[in-house]
Amino acid sequence: MTQIIVLFGGRGNERHVSVASAQNVIRTIPDVLCWFWSPSGAIHDVAAGDLLAHQRPFELDYVPARPAIWPTLEQALDTLPVEDPLFLLALHGGEGEDGTVQAALERRGIPFTGSGSNASANAFDKGKAKEIVRKAGVRMADSIEIPKTDGTHVTEALKTLLARSERAVLKPLADGSSRGLYFVNRGDDLPAIAGQVAAIGVPYLAEQFIAGRELTVAVIEEEGRLRALPCLEIETDPGHVFDYAGKYLGTGTREICPANIPADVAADAQRVAVAAHSALGCDGYSRTDLVMAADGVYFLETNTLPGLTSSSLVPQQLAAAGISFEHFLHEQLALAVRRGGGPRAKPRRLTQPAGYSTKSAVTKQ
Which residue range(s) make up the domain with 177? Predict the structure, then answer.
């Protein structure tokens, strides 16, 4: 019998969002195992009630009531207590989204939801993702990769971009953009900003700021074909940006779905999202962030494991498309079962295995 294991938490800075996603998932599909990957790297088998009782997940660390069972995720995977595991990944950022966890599951032939290790790694590295998606003929902003070094490189990159544009954006090269995000204007104190960025100690991407309306488009795979969901627009109040507080605490932002934009622009945004999903080799689902500028739609980045919280963008787009969150989760689990645990192939026409039913595969009888 297939046993679903919801894996959440992780050692990255998006683990709070991961906890909230796991809460939303287990409210929707009960009778699953819940594994919390703690910041120390240990794995805790947690009770659903314990997880659901945790309040303010975006702000407060989740501390499981039970002690860890395994010291590492690798050991947990090597000593799985079930014969037919199926992982529903509720991880975001870090090793959960950069292909590390996906590769560990692939090596063991364990099926899981979402993209495989190669697509995850390529999408997570914003510079590499832009290089791949650009070949699909997608418009995007100028950018410069900044190595993990002193602030001199940051300052020079900003000078180069600000010579061509009045504003630039600094974002971690290989991490979520909700944290460590800087908007820089001409005339700002560049050495001071560069010092702050250098102190973070990770590679960055300096990018030309494209003025326009912020859009995001989820792409899901259904019946072997890709479907772009309705566009969602993110509005920000003056003086605010769509950072962690705006995205998860509702500070100075509003999310409108479907976006109130012309039909031809919406179609172009959906086309770009599908092109990015395909070019990167994503599986199951993804979410691509875009800007609707005066001269067209610009690609920003693609998330291979976007948030699944009750207020996240993908669930909002599913609702706008008339797709229940429960149906979406069951479809993702069914895709994972059909694909198995090996390296992922590009989307194709999928057929239902003989005797297979989504309900029996994903629900304990």
Answer: 143-208
